[in-house]
Amino acid sequence: MTKLIALLVMVSSISIAAQDVHVRVGPGHAQAGPGNENLTDFPTIQNALDHHPFAGPGGRVYIEIAPGTYRERVIVTQNHQNITFVGMGAKPEDTVISNSLNAKTAGGTFFTETAEINGDGFEADNITFENTAGNTGQAVAAAVRADRAVFKHVRFVGHQDTLFADYGRQYYLECFITGGVDYIFGNAAAVFDRSELNSNGPGFVTAQSRTSPDQTTGYVILNSRVTSSIDQGEPPMDKATPGATSAAAARKMIGLGRPWRAYSRVVYIGTSLPAEMNPAGWNNWGKKENESTAWYAEYGSTGPGAGAEARVSWAHALMPGEVNQFLPKHFLLGKDGWDAEAAAAKLP
Questions:
Q1: pLDDT, tens digit (0-9, with 9 covering 90-100), for 22-75
Q2: Cα–Cα distance between 241 and 203 in angstroms, integer?
């Protein structure tokens, strides 16, 4: 009988330890009471991150954020794993994490991010990360250095260097990312699935930074749309822009990508490209040697900017049999067999 009681206590403890934790952020929320016994309210997102109860093994901390604009910088530290941000509004625009710092005022690009995400297993759904510094230089909305990170129905708003997708495996589903210059950059293994990449100024969509050919990193833009909302008053790109005969012709040009580091890798699959797309597509960032190390490819591009015949000679056209390796189930699998699509399906 004693052994049975001990076993029941142990099983009960394990069950409790594995429970998820739910906390709420936002002014005016009801405090703990009938129906809210397991909820804790916090006035800011960072306050919730600093003081939330920890879930047990196998559990997850859900930070449910009330609609509103939260003017704060948010840091998810490495020891805060399996955190989920959920915007409680009707759409991502209803819940906004906002700040305004550029590299000049902050002392460098990597001090400008509105949200810094370092904890593995991070998720976000139905929310916006923005940096409102505008066209004033590097100004990061979110820096993601977390493995097994999932973003679903998330907006990233900025201009130059909007999203620093830099480390680990990352999956972006039905997201909206806007910027003008190198607005997705870093060295993560990231898939952007059924998302919109909106260029709000002339420049390159990606600046991926793989540093050696044996790294499994790179960006895959899958079944997505590149769109343009370029202001006619924007200054022109450099006259030497490949595929443009003059500064006037280059004025509204968008590029698929350029190599921040020599072995940069980016693949566009089944993605719609706008008329503002530079026919050359890719750029070597002023280094001829990058043309033999960077690996850029397209497959099944559509739209007025999809003319493959004008692309730079050193880019690749994927064959049908090469596409499968870049789908999320393979590209993000890793040694632990992570199923990014299944993880995203669990989010609202």
A1: 999 997 554 444 455 455 689 999 999 999 988 988 999 999 999 999 999 999
A2: 10
Please identify which of the residues 41, 120, 125, 161 carries the catalytic annotation.
161
Question: What is the reported pTM?
Answer: 0.89
Amino acid letter, 338: W
- Among residues 120, 125, 182, 193, the one annotated as catalytic is 182
Contacts of 43 (CB under 8 A, 6+ apart): 25, 26, 27
The residue written with tokens 């003059």 in the block is: 246
Look up 339 and say whether it is catalytic: no
- DSSP tag of 247: H
161 is catalytic: yes
CB atoms within 10 A of CB 56: 15
Alpha helices in the chain (DSSP H): 2-17, 45-51, 103-106, 247-250, 328-331, 340-345
Walk me through the domains of the chain, giving residue ranges and CATH numbers: 21-345 (2.160.20.10)
Mind listing the pLDDT tens digit for each residue in 126-160?
999 999 999 999 999 999 999 999 999 999 999 99
